[in-house]
């Protein structure tokens, strides 16, 4: 499942980019799919049986890829003034999902199943991206060195953390994770000779998290980012 999870996260991210979805749509979809939908499926066979849809009878990659697209669709309905159409998603699915052809009706059924698995709870107030964006704007407003930081790098770090179930657990505390990603991006992208801004004390001031706690999370993130990949 670990390898499959990584492939599914990459599929969702690639699909979001091809659909030109705004970052908030992509990260809300990742939150719904990777943080909530996949763990629910992995731990609740009983729930799958109760829902009874053919889409849940086997965890084929194609079925899970369909649910990844559904998470983007739901997220788009939440955030976009003009939500993605089912026709647009089906067209992308026809191009990217190799082992199964899904009809428009399948997409509609999959949306209902997805929501059933989440017990129709799609609250989005705790998406780490929202906190990260707010912190980044604040940081650039008070630190000249913020001009050297790239928000794309922050998002790349967030994408990598979704790859593994162990590191995705960091998303259970989204505000702390956002603060840790900001500090990690500072360490990675700002030249060391220009580390003049007291970034950890500033993060402590605006979030109330202890410097040691943020420092530990930064170490975890760096270990994952720089570990060898197959």
TrEMBL record:
Protein name, per record: Cyclin N-terminal domain-containing protein
Source domain of life: Eukaryota
Gene3D superfamilies given in the database record: Cyclin-like
Family matches, as SUPFAM superfamilies: Cyclin-like
Source organism of this protein record: Hibiscus sabdariffa
Ranges where the Cyclin N-terminal domain occurs: 3-122
Pfam family, one: Cyclin_N
